[in-house]
């Protein structure tokens, strides 16, 4: 039986790795279509690429409308934002609030947009995975390296969509 995976944020890394299994159909959405992703789509019939930015719900809905069902929805899209500690940023940088809003809108609201667009495609036993990182850990990171990213990824750890496919 073929497993159907929708990967959002698939221009590199995890999304591309999933397409190696011939028993998996991968629907890969990203804000831009990388040459590597387009190359896989051209050479593997199980890979389908879509232009779908997480900050644009209509693009996500269009992608979802072309897929009959999804067994696994994997959200890996994200931005890291500035890497300097909040209190040590050069005064020439953008205001902290604008950095935080940009990162939050992609990493958190973007995740919500993805789940919202695909939830009707998830069947019984379907899984939704929202990718975080060690930067989301209160115990394992100082948050000084990428504070906006740490805040956004920590919020994903505490966010559950309350989705029940039964």
From TrEMBL:
Superkingdom: Eukaryota
Source species of the chain: Saitozyma podzolica
Protein name: Uncharacterized protein
Signal peptide from the UniProt entry: none
One of the Pfam families matching this protein, by short name: adh_short
Classification via InterPro entries: NAD(P)-bd_dom_sf, SDR_enzymes, SDR_fam
Gene Ontology MF term list: oxidoreductase activity, acting on the CH-OH group of donors, NAD or NADP as acceptor
